[in-house]
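Predict structure. Chain length: 304.
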Amino acid sequence: MSNLITTRGLCKQYKAAVCVKDLDLTVPEGGIYGFLGPNGAGKSTTMKMILGLAKPTSGTITVFDEEMSSRNRLSILKEIGSLIESPSYYGHLTGMENLKIISTLKGVEEKDVTRVLEIVRLEKQKDKRVGQYSMGMKQRLGLACALLGNPKLLILDEPTNGLDPAGIQEMRELICSLPGRYGMTVMVSSHLLGEIDQIATYVGIISRGELLFQDTLSKLYKKSEQSIALRTMDNEAALSILGAQGVSCRIQERYLLLPKLSDDELVSQVSRLMEQRIGVVRIEERHKSLEDIFLKLTGTAVSL
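Prediction complete.
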């Protein structure tokens, strides 16, 4: 699998403040890359550098196998659609009129406007003034602008910001459909763990400008420490019995927490408790949540 975006040693410094430090990103082709981090972590700055909207202090950016420079930037950007921060629009014009202006600026045929309106499901509101659009409709219009010209790569910065739950769900479904239906690669940033968890195939975690993790979402979950939770009729006695068998465990909120055991080991230990007339009323397998993994990596809480 080839990478559509590769950065090497990417840095951005504003006076004494280092916003992005030695960033080595690899965005694989054909999936959804979730760029996850708390607010102020450097996500927007990184995306702006990839799009040529901010100049790197040092490092290189390669897009479509070409190292980006002032010489080739415009030709590369023709194959990229983007939505950075909040969408821009003319509030006194209709959705259709806004898209026609953008299509002219992009050098895209006007007939593509109808196509992108259907993708973002705004065809019924195309003749309505954008100033009267809801926040969700404005975000979808911004996405439609990014989709004009059928780009190979889509870069979306916090596309669900300010949306209500229904709007978030709608935007999520749209983003998830793009690689399969249109062959696009999507890079999407978010500080919302639940969003990245539900849409991404590949994830990069950034904190204080540094990349802490980058791989598939399944590899991230492998960092989860599995455990067994037992609830018994006498946790103190059970703790003593299991400890005598060399099983490391502790009591937490009316449960005994044990390390991950094989099925045979678990059956053996539960049988031993039952033989000592200690009733076992519940057995649960537990995993670290994505939030727990993120906290361990960054030491920073992020929104669910």
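Summary: The chain has a mean pLDDT of 89.
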